[in-house]
Design a protein that fits this description.
By secondary structure, the protein is α/β, with parallel strands linked by helices. The chain has one domain: Roll (2,3-Dihydroxybiphenyl 1,2-Dioxygenase, domain 1), CATH 3.10.180.10. Helix content is 19%, strand content 32%. The chain has 3 helices and 8 strands, in the order βαβαβββαβββ. The strands form 2 sheets. Strands 1-4-3-2 form a 4-stranded mixed sheet, covered by helices on one side. It is globular and about 40 Å long. The mean pLDDT is 96. Pfam families: Glyoxalase. This is VOC family protein.
Length: 120
């Protein structure tokens, strides 16, 4: 048996925050909202994707942001994206050096950490 990849990463959000999630993940960082299967819509939340990156936002009644655990999204042009994010009011913190990558962190409106990485 071999693991062949990651299908998606799930992050938590407070109940009733779907519009806030859409405003950030769709409108600010540019992911496309994916359709949730009908039988899962009753749980709330929303799904987003771009290329092979899939992020699912799930409702958690006892929500606490993920400040250490995080998805790391590959981007084409980190400097340009960081500038666009700053223009939209999203703080960007440059990351520590990692050979072969430029990287930095943002947080979603719920306080979840998201790492952005560009292969050099």
């Amino acid at each position: 048996m071999a693991i062949t990849g990651i299908d998606h990463v799930q992050l938590a959000m407070p109940p009733g925050s779907e519009d806030t999630a859409r405003a950030f993940y769709r409108d600010i960082i540019g992911l496309r909202e994916a359709d949730k299967p009908e039988h899962l819509r009753v749980n709330g939340g929303c799904w987003f994707e771009s290329g092979t990156a899939h992020i699912h936002l799930g409702v958690d009644e006892a929500f606490a942001p993920a400040r250490k655990a995080h998805p790391a999204l590959l981007v084409e042009d980190l400097a340009a994206l960081a500038a666009q994010l700053r223009e939209k009011g999203v703080a960007f913190k440059p990351g520590k050096p990692l050979e072969g990558y430029a990287r930095g962190d943002i947080t979603d409106p719920f306080g979840n950490r998201i790492e952005l990485m560009q292969r050099l």
